[in-house]
Structure formats: structure tokens, C-alpha cells
Amino acid sequence: MKTKFLRNLLMALFVFGVLILAGCSNNSETTGNDDQGESGEEGSEERMNIRVFAPTFTTEPPTDDSPVLKAIEDYTNKDITMEWAPNSNIEDKFNITLSSGDLPHIMVVPNKSPSFISAVEDGAFWELGPYLKDYPNLSQANEIILNNSSINGDIYGIYRSRNLGRTGVIIRKDWLENLGLEEPKTIDEFYNMLKAFKEQDPDGDGQDDTYGLVVSKYEGPWDVMQTWFGVPNRWGEDENGELYPFFMDDNYVESLNFFKKLYDEGLVNEDFAVMDPAQWSEPVISGEAGVQVNVLDEGHRIQDKIVEANPENTEPITVIKAVEGDHGLLNLPTSGYNGMLAISKTSVKSEEELKQVLDFIDKLGDEEAQILAGNGIEGRQYDIVDGELVNHAQDDPALLAEMDGLNQLLTFIPESKVLTPAGDPLRELEEKLMKENEEIVVANPAESYISEVYSKKGQQLDNIILDARVKYIVGQIDEAGLEEAIELWKQNGGTDYIAEINQLHQEAQK
After folding, report:
1. Is 90 exceeded by the pLDDT of residue 76?
2. 474/249 Cα distance (integer angstroms)
3. DSSP state of 98
4. 17-74: pLDDT as tens digits
5. Which of 162, 279, 384, 439 has a Cα at 20 to 30 A from 392?
6. Where is the composition biased (Acidic residues) (predicted)?
7. What is the DSSP letter of 139?
């Protein structure tokens, strides 16, 4: 009897001890979680493994044992498995991965393709909008670019930032100086400059062989310049909150009349409607044309070629943002992004895991992480000598292979912090104006809306309007012809397109 009692007592003490130890273990885990904060990372002994689908532009992207990748892992406190796809067929690889159902944690989405939109509608990716405010870098995302990259106003990918205010005017600075002209500030001054470049022998060769503005069959310059006249960016909004297409704006014909005037007076190349965009910069380089409306950073590329041919002409190019019209100083933005980082629900199953992945993406916006992904490791891929960047990787394939493509992970939110070589004055001016442009760009209020009508008939609808614009500029149709084109646009799906866009707009406002 006594033996049985002792045996039961010992058993009870043993169970009690096990429970105490288990309680201590649980308390320890709870305390550790409290110390981790929102991301749940700081006190964690095991690092989360994050799989990333990303494009590669090389046949030898970084491997798992890349010292640069390991340094990024240490900085972000995550293990990273890169799943590289050749950029040449990134769309196909993206679609194959989607259809497999085995989605990595993060996917670099090239664009808002029908397959991505369909996957979003099927619930394959997290909606990230409500979470971005909780992260120091991501909370500084540009609202215009967020909207541009969204799907009907919802954020299903963190955009990879590019210059929003990239467009501007490239001018032969040496021609301005030869004619004693100042940079134009208004539309009238812009016209007068083009006229002088046509008529006043700006290159001083005594020949009537120059003109003002070069345009190719790429329609971008007309889109940019019509914005100067107050024409909306794709869609305008009336006083009742209704959206309407840009060519129905009151200022549209005024802008076309200006373009027609340039054409009629020979201030723009006669063959613009058929010129190959690949040859677009050649007339400025060769000294035939004096002005191009393009991305600002084409300016230094044009200058480099002019200087290469004539080293004595050291600063032949300058750039400006835009010129001012009756509606103020306005410019057309780019979309402001190149692809997105989408987070799948296949691998990221809980909100806690989502926050860890967002923490990873946010940390990649820190200066140290950007430099690692963009420049490599100091003392290995690069050095700083007398305050200047010295790149060792550009001439060493082995060093380059340790980092090449890791910059595809970067969002550059709120800005790029990658080290760059010292720039020349023109490059510095381009960067300065791109930044200033962000204050004057005209947003497209319908940029994020996904239209079924447009997905089926968009190319046909666009061609009707673009063809009519060209025909008006060269004098093949008049205002009555423009109206006929607009009626044709409406009859071929345009009326339904407007109705659909406005329905999406109303839903987004709610």
C-alpha cells in the first residue's frame, strides 16, 4: 500500500515538473514574440526563407552562394531563394509559373497582363494597400504611381519605381547661342525658336538645310505637347465628376491647330508619320533638326554622339521641362514604374507571414541594401576613391555574376540610393528636371481601371483617333473630319468604353 502511494506520488511530481517546464518554454516563446514587433523578425532565431521569381538579363545570374546575395540575406534577416527567368521570355515563364499553382513568395510581375489580372481576380495575390503605411520606406510611395500600378484602385503589387517626370524638350544649345536666343519659356517662344532654327541658319553653314522639331511615327511628342495646351492625360474629368477622353476636351483642337501650323511652315519634318523611331535622334545629331520632345535622358546620349564626331563642340545640348501655355506649366508623365513585386497567397498563407515579406521588401529600400543589390560589396565589386565610385565588376565577369540582376528586387521607394559615377553637367540637369517635373505632371484619373471593352477593342479605337490626328496635322481632314472620326470611335465601342470607365470610376470613389 505504501509502495503504491509512493509510486503515485512520484508520478504526480514528474507530470507536475513536465507541465512547469512546458509553461516556461511557452512563456519564453511569448516573450520572444513580443520583442519582435510588427514584422515578427527581430527576435526570431530561424530566418524565413523567401522564394523570389525575377527576370535575368544574363545567362549567369547570381547563384545561392553569391557573397552579395548572402550579404543581402544578412541585412534583411531572410534566406533568399532566387528563381530566375530569362527576360526574353519572362511573360511565358510568368504564365507557366501561374498555371503551376506553386507560386513563390514574391513574383516580379512585368505588367498588368490579362493573365496577372485573372490571377488577381482568382485571389492568387495579396491586396497590399492597407499595409504599406506601416513600413518606413513603403509608406513613402508616390500616390500617382500607386494609382497607375493598381488594378481598379487596389494595390496587388509594389511598383518598381522609374522617373515619373521623365519627359521634356531636348534643344541644340549651340544653335541657341549662335542665334543669341534664350531657352523658351512659353509656347509662343517655343514656336519662335523653331522658326528661327528653320529660317536663320543656326549652324552657320550658309545653307537652307535645317528645321526646328523632329518627330517620328511614335506619337509620344504630340501627346506631350498637347498637354501644354491643357489637354488631359488620356482622360479628363468634368465639373460633375464624369470622365471623358482627351480628344473631346475643348483645348484639343487648339493644340492640333498649333501642330498643323508647325507642319505647314516646315518647322517639323514632313515625313514624321512614317519615320522609324529608331532613327528619331539622328537629325538632331547630324545637325539637321534643332529640337526633340522626348525623355530628358536622351539629351546626354545625343550630346555624346555629337561630341564624339566633333570634340571641339563640348556642350551642344541643353534640356528643359516644358513650356507654359494658358493653363500653366504642365507636362505628361510616364507611368512611373516598370513592373511590380506581387506577393502570392500560395506561399504566404497568413497575415503574419505577409508582414515578414513586406518587411523584407521594405528593408530592400534602405541605402545599404540598395547599394548591395545595385553596386555589390565595397572592396570587391567597387571602391570609393577620392569620393568617386570605381566599378571593378564592369570588367570582371566573375564579380559581375555575383550581383548581376539582384537590382531587379529593388523598388527604389522612396528613391534610388544606388551609387552612381560622377555625372557631367547635362546629366545632372536631366536628373534635376525629372525631379522638378513631378510637380507639374498631369495624372490620368483612369490609369488603374481595367476595361473589358478596351481589352477587346482598344487597338482599333486608338487607331481611329491617332490616324485622325495625323490627317488633321498634314491637312487631309478638317474639323468636320475630326468630328466624323470621333463619331466612328463612338460607334465602334467608344460609347461603351466611356460608360464602363465611368462606372469603374464611380465604384473607385466609393
Report:
1. yes
2. 21
3. H
4. 433 334 443 433 333 333 333 444 444 468 999 999 999 999 999 999 999 999 999 9
5. 162
6. 35-44
7. G
Of 250, 224, 223, nearest to 479 (Cα)? 250
- Note whether 373 and 402 are within 8 A (CB): no
DSSP string, 213-279: E---SS-HHHHHHHHHTT--SSEEE-TTS-EEEGGGSTTHHHHHHHHHHHHHTT-B-TTTTT--GGG
Smallest CA-to-CA distance from 126 within 450, 337, 409, 355 is with 355
DSSP sequence for 445-508? TTTT---HHHHHHHHHHHHHHHHHHHHHHTTSS-HHHHHHHHHHHIIIIIHHHHHHHHHHHHHH
Half-sphere exposure of 268 (CA within 13 A, CB side): 24
Cα distances from 389 to residues 296, 371, 379, in angstroms, run: 24, 12, 11
Element (H, E) at 399: helix 397-401
Q: Which three cell numbers stand for residue 350?
A: 497568413
Cβ(188)–Cβ(258) below 8 Å: no
Residues with Cβ within 8 Å of 264's Cβ and at least 6 positions away in sequence, in order, are 475
382, β-bridge pairs: 378, 391
Handedness of CA 59, 64, 65, 71 (dihedral sign): positive
Tally Cβ neighbours within 10 Å of residue 117.
Answer: 15
Taking only the tens place, the pLDDT of each residue in 193-209 is: 999 999 999 999 999 99
Give the CB-side neighbour count of residue 274, counting CA atoms within 13 A: 3
What's the CA gap between 144 and 49, in Å, rounded? 32
CA-based nearest residue to 472, from 486, 454, 458: 486
Question: Amino acid identity, residue 415?
Answer: E
In angstroms, the CA 44 to CA 56 distance is 32
**Residue at grid coordinates 534643344:** 171
C-alpha span between 316 and 202 (Å, rounded): 12
The set of cell numbers assigned to 48 is: 524565413
Residue 125 bridge partners (DSSP): 344
